[in-house]
């Protein structure tokens, strides 16, 4: 079971375990991080699961879809490390992935 490191908006860092095959959003939600709203439930129709990905893992992620890019454009907290956590499948190759929950829009 791979490990995910989540940094909250307040700067608290927690290590959690998640099942490979879930989305990063599902792993975060299932481990009790209530500040990640994920209102659409992973359908890529909102940006409430916005996270900032540690640069070390950027190359291990699939390219961003046009829909994900468009949704992230609506966030004032978007930067080069921004991704929607619902669009990242959590795999064994992402063991140790570190993400920071983005500021609330």
Automatic annotation (TrEMBL):
<dbReference type="GO" id="GO:0009055">
    <property type="term" value="F:electron transfer activity"/>
</dbReference>
<dbReference type="Pfam" id="PF00111">
    <property type="entry name" value="Fer2"/>
</dbReference>
<dbReference type="InterPro" id="IPR001055">
    <property type="entry name" value="Adrenodoxin-like"/>
</dbReference>
<dbReference type="GO" id="GO:0051537">
    <property type="term" value="F:2 iron, 2 sulfur cluster binding"/>
</dbReference>
<comment type="similarity">
    <text>Belongs to the adrenodoxin/putidaredoxin family.</text>
</comment>
<keyword id="KW-0411">Iron-sulfur</keyword>
<protein>
    <submittedName>
        <fullName>2Fe-2S iron-sulfur cluster binding domain-containing protein</fullName>
    </submittedName>
</protein>
<keyword id="KW-0479">Metal-binding</keyword>
<feature type="domain" description="2Fe-2S ferredoxin-type">
    <location>
        <begin position="2"/>
        <end position="105"/>
    </location>
</feature>
<dbReference type="InterPro" id="IPR001041">
    <property type="entry name" value="2Fe-2S_ferredoxin-type"/>
</dbReference>
<dbReference type="InterPro" id="IPR012675">
    <property type="entry name" value="Beta-grasp_dom_sf"/>
</dbReference>
<dbReference type="GO" id="GO:0140647">
    <property type="term" value="P:P450-containing electron transport chain"/>
</dbReference>
<dbReference type="InterPro" id="IPR036010">
    <property type="entry name" value="2Fe-2S_ferredoxin-like_sf"/>
</dbReference>
<keyword id="KW-0001">2Fe-2S</keyword>
<dbReference type="GO" id="GO:0046872">
    <property type="term" value="F:metal ion binding"/>
</dbReference>
<keyword id="KW-0408">Iron</keyword>
């Amino acid at each position: 079971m791979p490990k995910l490191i989540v940094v909250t908006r307040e700067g608290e860092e927690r290590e959690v375990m998640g099942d490979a095959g879930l989305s990063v959003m599902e792993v975060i939600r299932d481990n009790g991080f209530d500040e990640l709203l994920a209102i659409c439930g992973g359908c890529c129709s909102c940006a409430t699961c916005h996270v900032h990905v540690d640069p070390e893992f950027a190359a291990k992620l699939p390219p961003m879809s046009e829909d994900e890019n468009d949704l992230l454009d609506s966030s004032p907290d978007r930067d080069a490390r921004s991704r929607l956590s619902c669009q990242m499948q959590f795999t064994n190759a992402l063991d140790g992935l570190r993400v920071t929950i983005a500021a609330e829009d």
